[in-house]
C-alpha cells in the first residue's frame, strides 16, 4: 500500500506490476478507476487487476477522494476535482507514454473526462456502465445523490442492513453515508462542468463502452457510438448496472482485447523473474 500526495490530497494507490515483459520495452499501463459511494479500488483486486497483470500490463489502482483509504476532505467533490486528482497522480507516478484508462460507473465518467482534457495522455478508454458528463447526467446525479442521502439517514437502516447483509457490507454503506452527510458531494457533483456533443466528438482515442442489457444506460449505446469515430459499444445480456461483478470474465475479455488492439503486449511465456 502507498499513500501519495496528489493535488494536495493523500491518495491511496496500489500497483500490480506486469508479470510478463518483452526485453527492455516498458509494459503498457492501465489505470483502474472505481465508482462512487460504496466502491473502492478493492473491487478491481477481485476482478480485472490480476488478469491484466498476468497479461503483461502494469496495473495502477487508486481510491477516489473521500473513499476507501484516501483522504476525505469536507469539500471539493466536483468532477473537476476528481480530474485534477487523476492528473496529479499520473504526474507523481511519472508514467512513460499514454495510459489506458478503465472506469466503472462514475470512474468511467472520470476516465472520459480525462481523455477530453488530455488527449495525448490516453491510449484508450474503457467505460463499464458509465457515461460522459452531460447536462442529463448532471440532473440524474442530483436526483440520485439527494435520494441516496435521504435514504441513508433513515432511522434503523444500518441495523436492518447488518441483519440482512452482515457487517462487512454495512461497513461500506456506512462509509457512503459519511461521504454524503459530512462532505459537499451531494451539491458538488451536479454542479460539475459538463461536456456538450462537440466536446464529446473531439475525443479521438479508442473508446470501449460496456452496458448491461437491463440497465437504463444501454439506451445510450447508439447515441454514444454515433458521436465517436473510434468507439465500440457492447450490451451484455442479462446484466444490470453491476456488469463488472456479474460478468467479470466477459468484461475482462473485452477490455483486454481492446487494450491489445491498441498497444503491443508481451508474448505469452516472456515471464519476469
From TrEMBL:
<keyword id="KW-0378">Hydrolase</keyword>
<dbReference type="GO" id="GO:0016787">
    <property type="term" value="F:hydrolase activity"/>
</dbReference>
<protein>
    <submittedName>
        <fullName>Hydrolase</fullName>
    </submittedName>
</protein>
<dbReference type="InterPro" id="IPR050266">
    <property type="entry name" value="AB_hydrolase_sf"/>
</dbReference>
<dbReference type="Pfam" id="PF00561">
    <property type="entry name" value="Abhydrolase_1"/>
</dbReference>
<dbReference type="InterPro" id="IPR029058">
    <property type="entry name" value="AB_hydrolase_fold"/>
</dbReference>
<dbReference type="GO" id="GO:0016020">
    <property type="term" value="C:membrane"/>
</dbReference>
<feature type="domain" description="AB hydrolase-1">
    <location>
        <begin position="28"/>
        <end position="156"/>
    </location>
</feature>
<dbReference type="InterPro" id="IPR000073">
    <property type="entry name" value="AB_hydrolase_1"/>
</dbReference>
Amino acid at each position: 500500500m502507498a499513500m501519495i500526495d496528489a493535488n494536495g490530497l493523500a491518495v491511496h494507490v496500489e500497483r500490480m506490476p506486469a508479470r510478463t515483459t518483452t526485453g527492455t520495452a516498458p509494459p503498457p499501463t492501465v489505470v483502474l478507476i472505481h465508482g462512487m459511494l460504496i466502491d473502492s479500488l478493492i473491487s478491481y483486486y477481485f476482478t480485472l487487476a490480476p488478469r491484466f497483470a498476468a497479461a503483461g500490463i502494469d496495473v495502477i489502482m487508486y481510491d477516489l477522494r473521500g473513499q476507501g483509504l484516501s483522504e476525505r476532505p469536507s469539500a471539493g467533490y466536483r468532477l473537476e476535482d476528481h480530474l485534477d486528482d487523476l492528473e496529479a497522480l499520473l504526474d507523481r507516478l511519472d508514467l512513460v507514454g499514454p495510459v489506458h484508462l478503465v472506469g466503472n460507473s462514475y470512474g468511467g465518467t472520470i476516465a472520459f473526462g480525462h481523455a477530453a482534457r488530455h488527449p495525448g495522455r490516453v491510449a484508450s478508454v474503457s467505460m463499464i456502465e458509465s457515461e460522459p458528463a452531460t447536462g442529463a447526467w448532471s440532473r440524474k446525479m442530483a436526483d440520485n445523490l439527494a435520494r441516496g442521502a435521504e435514504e441513508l439517514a433513515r432511522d434503523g437502516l444500518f441495523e436492518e442492513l447488518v441483519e440482512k447483509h452482515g457487517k462487512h457490507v454495512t461497513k461500506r454503506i456506512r462509509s457512503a453515508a459519511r461521504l454524503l452527510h459530512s462532505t459537499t458531494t451531494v451539491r458538488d457533483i451536479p454542479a460539475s462542468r459538463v461536456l456538450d456533443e462537440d466536446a464529446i466528438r473531439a475525443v479521438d482515442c479508442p473508446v470501449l463502452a460496456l452496458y448491461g442489457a437491463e440497465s437504463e444506460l444501454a439506451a445510450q449505446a447508439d447515441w454514444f457510438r454515433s458521436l465517436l469515430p473510434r468507439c465500440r459499444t457492447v450490451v451484455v445480456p442479462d446484466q444490470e448496472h453491476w456488469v463488472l461483478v456479474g460478468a467479470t470474465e466477459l468484461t475482462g475479455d473485452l477490455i483486454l482485447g481492446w487494450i491489445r488492439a491498441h498497444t503491443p503486449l508481451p508474448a505469452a511465456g516472456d515471464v519476469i523473474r
